[in-house]
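Need a sequence for this fold. Nothing fancy.
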């Protein structure tokens, strides 16, 4: 296997935010407090680009909603995201992945077997920074997630 491509098809809808004059990149740009370039407007979910990352997955949306609720009540709580497991549920090649899978400086150690694949992305210090597992090897994902350096 030469490559694993996750094409989830989600793209932030930013037309309304653009018309409102908000800063847009790949999504509506927000800081760790989910505040946009307009101090009175917040964003979360599929449209938000949080500190440079678009995270159109359930866990970051749920955590963002809790932080936003606190901040709207007057707290000053930053969003702190843990290492998260992304599950891609396709019948032909189900995958679990986590970490900084798009980093260009990682060395990938790929082990393919009949039961599936385990690909580990390690940095120059041999720290696990990302992984992708497929099929029957997906049961290894939680163990890898615990050792992921973020």
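Here you go.
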């Amino acid at each position: 296997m030469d490559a694993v491509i996750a094409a989830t098809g989600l793209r932030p809808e930013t037309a309304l935010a653009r018309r409102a004059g908000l800063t847009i990149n790949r999504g509506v740009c927000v800081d760790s407090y989910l505040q946009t370039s307009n101090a009175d407007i917040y964003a979360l979910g599929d449209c938000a680009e949080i500190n440079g990352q678009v995270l159109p997955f359930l866990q970051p949306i749920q955590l963002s909603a809790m932080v936003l609720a606190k901040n709207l009540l007057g707290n000053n709580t930053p969003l702190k995201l843990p290492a998260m497991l992304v599950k891609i549920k396709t019948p032909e090649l189900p995958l679990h992945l986590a970490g900084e899978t798009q980093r260009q400086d990682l060395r990938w150690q790929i082990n393919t077997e009949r039961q599936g694949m385990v690909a580990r992305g390690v940095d120059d210090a041999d720290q696990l920074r990302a992984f992708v597992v497929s099929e029957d090897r997906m049961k290894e994902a939680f163990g890898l997630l615990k050792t992921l350096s973020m």
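For context: The longest helix spans residues 58-72.
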